[in-house]
Amino acid sequence: MSADFPAKMSRFVQRGINGGGSVENLKRLSGGANMESWSFDHAGSGYVLRLSRSAEMMAGRAYGHDAEAAVVRAAYAAGVKAPEIVAEITPDDDLGTGYLMRRIDAEVNPAKILAAPAPTLLSDLARELAKIHKIPIGNLPALPVTSSRSLLSELKERFLSFGGDRPVMALAICWLEEHCPAAVDPVLLHGDFRMGNIMADADGLAGVLDWELAHLGDRHQDLAFGCINSWRFGHIDRPAFGLGSLEEFWSEYELASGVAVEPDRFRWWLIYATLWWGVCCLQMADIWRKGLDAGLERAVIGRRASETEVDLLMLLEEFVPDQERGPVNLDTPQHATGNGEPSAAEMLAAIASWIESDIKPNAQGRDRFMASVALNALGMLRREAEQPVSVHDKRLSEQLRSGAMSLATPGLFDRLRQQSLRKLMADQPKYSALAKAIQQWV
């Protein structure tokens, strides 16, 4: 927090809320890799400021915070559980761009929500999406109009711009190109409707947050997005948002919307969304590498691409010829007993031990959260030092994109499974798909 930030905040709040009193209990909320969120109290009410201080961080976005705020206002007016916006930042506030919302006091942590979800929560999510998709386009600001082909083309270009050297992602792009569904009449999409962006309490859904990716397109994109394994937070056995079955989710949505869900179209968007998150992880690394955001959290998210590669292989497996689906020979890493000077893995373990024992217990708020992020990063590096693995292969990626190789190429699926499993073992050994994939493939 800069020294002048609290004073600027106070002036903005006084202007935006038009009331006396001071800003109290100001704190930055944990998480939020793309935007800052600041919670505070004022005159007996709670508020959250959504903020971007850097023009660079807004570069490449389809629209600014003014249009985003207009979408949130339209959703709130339509009865969607979106936050109520009370003020928007102007250039005179000297804070950047963003808007101020009334705070929704409910749980946002996906692990806590999924540990004991309200019985109605999955139905609530289905009905909320139906409500969003019914908002008249005429009530909205100008938003991007998308199709499956346009989004896939953009995603492919992003993949290539980040090196284009991850064969599993190249394979997924080829499959998506070959199976691209026909265009449909567009509706308003939230664009990021998933655990982590919804709030819940004992009564069910309490709030829908983070509207920065809202656009017009195929409703199946919204339906599938929150169902990718990354957003189920360990509940791999509950394919609908980590809460229940797809059949229950679809049934509730169809009842509320009057529109039938198309399973094949849903599957295409599920694979697309899984790939999209993988490419986003590569983008996080690129942002960090260019110095646009030097935060550790962004660099660590860059190492989450491997989770999507195992997920993609599991989703694509049904399209692999039977003779290529044999068991994977996965070597168990051998941890040698050290002698002499400490190895790289041992040094990393020593640093992690120090953070765990001396730093994290004394940290508070975001500092404690970042200590956990640092421990996660050190664990990745230690495991990689013990068993080096690389999934970067530009030549193979180009062969897949050109059609010279495919899911039917003898030995390819086995090779990709071996490499992807080893990479995920280093990056995220507790990721839910790893245990399931090993059980299924090894």
From TrEMBL:
Molecular functions (GO terms): transferase activity
InterPro entries: ACAD10_11_N, AGP_Transferase, Aminoglycoside_PTrfase, Kinase-like_dom_sf
Keywords, alphabetical: Transferase
Residue span, Aminoglycoside phosphotransferase domain: 26-241
Keyword Transferase: yes
TM stretches of this protein: none
PANTHER family reported in the protein's UniProt record: AMINOGLYCOSIDE PHOSPHOTRANSFERASE-RELATED-RELATED, BLR2944 PROTEIN
Name of the protein: Phosphotransferase family protein
Organism: Sphingorhabdus contaminans
